Amino acid sequence: MTKADLIDEVSRLAELTRKDSEVIVETIFDSIVRSLRVGDKIEIRGFGSFRTRQRKPRVGRNPKTGDRVEVPAKKIPFFKPSKELKDLVNTGDHAAPPPAPPAP
């Protein structure tokens, strides 16, 4: 699903114009990014949590030339799905348990 698909889905389900739906989706994404930038953790119950992790500086290699490259320390976004989301993903039609045998 792309951002455009998400905007269309919000527009359809909430019966809003596409422009209004785009504003809503962009506002949510911008809020998440702003919070992560300042080091806040975002927790959406039943979905998961977003936070940043600190990566240490390291020495990497340029894959084309093989030269050593200093990679600076940086923050990376990290998403941890909730148990509810994991359960929902794993109980789709493809993972449905086989039907019970008929009672005698």
Describe the structure.
The protein is built from three helices and five strands; from the N terminus they run ααβββββα. α1 (3-14) packs across α2. The chain has helices at 3-14, 18-37, 83-90, and strands spanning 42-44, 48-55, 58-61, 68-71, 74-81. With 104 residues, the protein is α+β, with helices and mostly antiparallel strands. The protein has a three-stranded antiparallel sheet. It has a two-stranded antiparallel sheet with strand order 3-4. The model has no long low-confidence stretch (mean pLDDT 89). It folds into two domains: 1-39; 41-92, IHF-like DNA-binding proteins (HU Protein, Chain A).
Structure described in brief:
The chain has 104 residues and is of the alpha+beta class. The protein contains 3 helices and 5 strands.
What's the SSE blueprint?
Elements: H1 3-14, H2 18-37, E1 42-44, E2 48-55, E3 58-61, E4 68-71, E5 74-81, H3 83-90
Antiparallel strand pairs: 1-2, 2-5, 3-4
Helix pairs in contact: 1-2
CATH class of the largest domain: Few Secondary Structures
- Give the name of the CATH architecture of the largest domain: Irregular
Separate helix tally: 3
| Number of domain units | 2
Radius of gyration equals 21 Å
Overall geometric form: extended
CATH topology of the largest domain: HU Protein, Chain A
Please, what is the oligomeric state? single chain
Identify the CATH homologous superfamily of the largest domain.
IHF-like DNA-binding proteins
Average predicted local confidence, pLDDT: 89
- Residue stretches low in confidence (pLDDT < 50, at least 5 long) are none
Order of helices and strands: HHEEEEEH
The fraction of residues in strands falls at: 25-35%
